[in-house]
Structure formats: structure tokens, C-alpha cells
Amino acid sequence: MNGPEIHIDFAPELRLFVPTKRREGRSAVVTDGVSTLGHVVESLGVPLTEAGRLLADGREVPVSHIPVAGEFIEVLAVERPQKVPGAPLRFLLDVHLGTLARRLRLLGVDAAYESEDIGDAALAALSAREQRVMLSRDRGLLHRRELWAGAYVYSHRTDEQLRDVLGRFAPGLAPWTRCTACNAPLREADKETVRERLEHGTRTSYDVFAECSSCERVYWRGAHHASLEAIVDEAVREFGTAGTCPVDRAG
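C-alpha cells predicted for Mut7-C RNAse domain-containing protein (251 residues):
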């Protein structure tokens, strides 16, 4: 670029996206004089999904703003909870976030998940077609224009990922109401109707069941109920109210 020089500063939360030399605070950027501020921000490494308000000399400007010489640009982080246009709030997770997808489904959050790598273009198109917020740790994917909405998942740890998503988007929670395998709603199931799909030990030890309305996976209160209940209780305590469902284990 060979045009107006501006100065830019990124919120601390966004500095992991930018080159090391820009992580200390305000730094100079030479622009081409025609590119939008949104383009400049992305060219420096920050997906617009992660950028909140943009300030030019203290006044808020849109991503379409063309920076002029001498302007001081501040790129703030997304405000939480983040408002997403449209309803209901739904998510799409890439191939690397399967455990997070299952945790969200455990809490009753609509979380579609691609278990195979279908490519960034296909994921972005699916996000747009189904109006789902794309959750990913792939920065390149979050730069794609086709995305309906997106968010970077900042941690490698599933428990921290879950808290990040719940804190950022504040989805309604309805634990124990969604299939953790395929994301469809659960329904109550009479023991006799699912008997043939149960192992002998399960048939003799449990009486309350549910099944997925789509894949017909059977759920009951299993040996690992306590660990799942702890996840649910912690999420509900911090982020929302609990729904009710008597089962949590798939056979």
C-alpha cells in the first residue's frame, strides 16, 4: 500500500490475531486510500466476526468507512452478550469441535456439527443457508464473506470453550432435551417400545427412557449421569435456567 497513514489500536482480546509488532498498542498503518476500514482490519488478521465497535478519532464508524490520513482507529472487541439477527439462535461447528457440540446439545442448544471436513466454502454456505452462527478455531474460515454469522472459539479446552460460547451468545438452555448424537429433539419412550434395543443389564436396571425423534437413539440415566449433571448444573447456575428430562445416557 502507498497511501494515507493512519494509526490503529486493537482491544487486548483481539491482539492474538495481529502480528507481534501490533500487539503493544497503537501502531502506524499505511493504507491505499480506497479500501474500507473493514478490509484494513481483516488485512491485519482480525476476522470481522470478532470486531465490535470501530472508532475513528473517538466517533463510531461503520466497516464501510474509508480511513483518511492521520485518523486514529480503535477496534473494540464484541460486546457480550452479543446480539445475533434473526431467530432462533442456532450454531454450526466445524470438524474440530465435536465435544463442544455435544456439550451444547446436552444443554438443549441447537448445535449442528460436521464430523467430516467438508471444506470452508461448504461450511460457510451451510451457515448462510440455515442461518447458523459458525463456531470455529479456523481464522481463515471466519474471514469468508458467505458466512451468515461467526465466532472464533478461543480456547483448546472444552469446558472453557463452553463457557465462552454461553457467555458470548447467552442461548436459552433446556438441558436433557436434545440428542447429543444428531441434535434432534428427544421424546419420552415407553420401556416396552425400546426393549429390543437395550442390553439385558440395561433392561433390568432402568425403567425410564427417552429416544431421539430422528435417529431413534435411546437414552437413560446411566453410570456417568453424575459427571453430565455436574456440567449441566454449572452451566445453568451461571448462564440460565434448567429444563427437565429424566435421562441422559445413550445405549
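Helices lie at 37-43, 98-106, 120-130, 139-142, 158-169, 191-194, 200-205, 225-239.
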